[in-house]
Amino acid sequence: MGGIKSVGAVTASFARRPFINLKKVQSSSRLELRPFCKNDARILATIINETWGFSSSAKNQWVAELFGYAYLYYNIAKSSSVIVATLNGVPAGCLCIADLRQKNTNIFYLLKAFFKILPILFCRELKSQVEGWKKFFKETKNQEKDLTHPYDAEIKLLITGKDFRGKGLGRKLLTTACQYFDKNNIFSFFLHTDTECSYKFYEAMGLTCLSKKIVDGSASDKFGNPWEIFIYGGN
Fold first, then answer.
1. DSSP 162
2. Region 178-198: what's the mean pLDDT?
């Protein structure tokens, strides 16, 4: 399929590597994967804000922090499966998968996202950040036109807390996604990422960069560099 192997092949290639060094991750910690529950939202929203630096320079912290909730709830609303990774019972990462062969719209979480984003849209202090994110979302949606064929699934969100990166947790979540794909006969998938994330992680995991673009206009990432966006798929 346009250079994308079946997810079974991706999983098989992963099987030849050590998915996760549990001793490295655990060191007296207990790693678990489970479905999302409402009590996870606060910590996961904080992880999202820390990753993209949305609230780092805002005086109106309580408003800026709503971005993490809005982004989390929107991805949950559009997903068919949401998995949370916990260490000693504390959320440390999240995986949202959308089966694109079926309709994925959870109205409850879509409304929660809408009401969380409203105060941000009316906050003057965050206007420039909001405009940057509008460009970002518009460009990522347009970028999907670069895909050469329809895909069965999309990883809407794969994120880990900054204190847990480089310890195998992201690898475990991606492996879990591949297991979900195998179980549900999903043979192609893609995901969006950008320079504010550890995007090279996906290449290290054997995925292929299907598209690479710079966000138009004056948008820059949290490091002050041109904001690059990518689409990766199984390889």
1. G
2. 93
